[in-house]
Amino acid sequence: MTREAGCELCELSVPTVWRGDKFSVIVVDDANYPGFCRVIWHDHVREMSDLSRDDRLLVNEAVFLVEEAVREVMQPLKVNVASLGNVVPHLHWHIIPRYADDAHFPAPVWAQAVRETEADTLAARRALAGQLGAAIARRFN
């Protein structure tokens, strides 16, 4: 496995909901975005074009499976899928459930917040997110 010293994704220590030979899936602990997931390629690779064709197909299918699980469990209005890597140049995808009442909607979650989501709404979404790991694992196992 190719690793880079100081890369937070090479040195990832958070629990995974699924781990394979080439990538892992995590549910991010984000108070404002329950159900936020990441698919993280294990090797330190910067760009999709650095992967073989088979690996590109493999990881794309993984992102789609995670999106399906997020849609099933979280019932969002929209799902954002992003692979930026500007801050951490290690190949990974963000799969983020979005709602009309979330803090940033319709802008990206990294934009300036325009509202606060009601606490009881976030609590209900956090409760749903507790089911997400099992829904993801079912798709990969």
From TrEMBL:
Chain ranges of the HIT domain: 5-105
GO terms assigned for molecular function: catalytic activity
Source species, domain of life: Bacteria
Pfam families, per database record: HIT
SUPFAM superfamilies, per database record: HIT-like (SSF54197)
InterPro entries for this protein: HIT-like (IPR011146), HIT-like_sf (IPR036265)
Transmembrane segments: none
Location of the motif Histidine triad motif: 90-94
Name by which UniProt lists this protein: HIT domain-containing protein
Species classification: Bacteria, Pseudomonadati, Pseudomonadota, Betaproteobacteria, Burkholderiales
